[in-house]
What does this fold into?
Amino acid sequence: MTSDGPVTTKPVIWAISAWRAGDHAQVAALATALRHAFGWHVEFKPAFDRRQDPVNSGYAGPWPDAVIGIGRGGLRLAAWIKEQSGGRTRIIVLGRVEGPLGVCDLVVTTAQYGLPDNANVIRLTLPFTAEISPDDGALTVWKTQFEALPKPLIGVLVGGPSSPLIFGKPEGERLAADLTKMAGATGGSLLIATGRRTPPEVASLLADLTKSSPDRHRFLPFPPEGFPRPEDNPYRAIVSLADRFVVTADSVSMLADAALTGRPITLFDLPVEPDKPTFKERLRRRRRRRFVTGRRKDVIDLAYDWAVRRGRARPARHVPTLIAWLLRSGAFSGDPAQARQLVERLAAERGTVLQRIRALLAGFAAPGSTRQEADTAATPADKHC
It folds into this structure.
């Protein structure tokens, strides 16, 4: 392309909503980032059940320039939309891909999904997520409750069992002991938030811990029926206001939220269920271990990667692989310097994703920029591919 003056046209982008809150949050975070970076509007469409026929989905042209999807339903609908557009629509997928990688124009993934290196794959350290602003008006009531507590404020984000990670009473006892030790060493206050998956026996142990020092610690459980209003949920306030974090290893999204703050994080690791004694699981385990330790790929790894790229093999989601990789990096050791390096790394990765999307939609640029400037910004070196 040549420089021919300002570009005022913006791409038409659809985002397929997701059934799961964590998945939808990633899509929403990417949509927000595109708006802030380039002034592009992303139109959200209803979630799609993968068991349905896209023909009966109610969608009709004119078709968008790009579709953002996550999960099997999002990918299936996005692929159908691309087909209806005659191949013009670009597909941007978050997470994993079922089927040939070439179906997608861009895949933004993390190590837990086990996808191989490919020209259209960007592997992030943690999932794409949105930063929580401490100036959010909905956090006012929580600021009032927390401001008088002894500092530092230690945000404790607790999930629950998620195969193959085990999280029962023994892990709850170990977590309570670790938190007691940390609170004693720092003189700070524990802000403990549980989730939907937190086992009752674990929640009970943590509640008892806070009762030992009610003037310092707060136990903020997730109610079985959910919170009546979004602002009643303390999660966003804890992420925004805590001085440091302890996060259980079962939730990658909680890790991502805490990491974006740039504050120290201690990861509470969890035991893993034994693998099934099958050839497929042994092959997957071998591949995961070699990835975590950074070993050079051998012929078996390369053959499996070839099969995944063509949709003939499907790696299982395995959060412990990502956790082991993160622990080896030292990012979640509780060290402030490591936390600052991590947030800088996440920011650089987000920039790479945004510029790759801009490149996919070549010819569209942020208001006031020229086509030549857009082309220059759209071709960064991507160390992940």
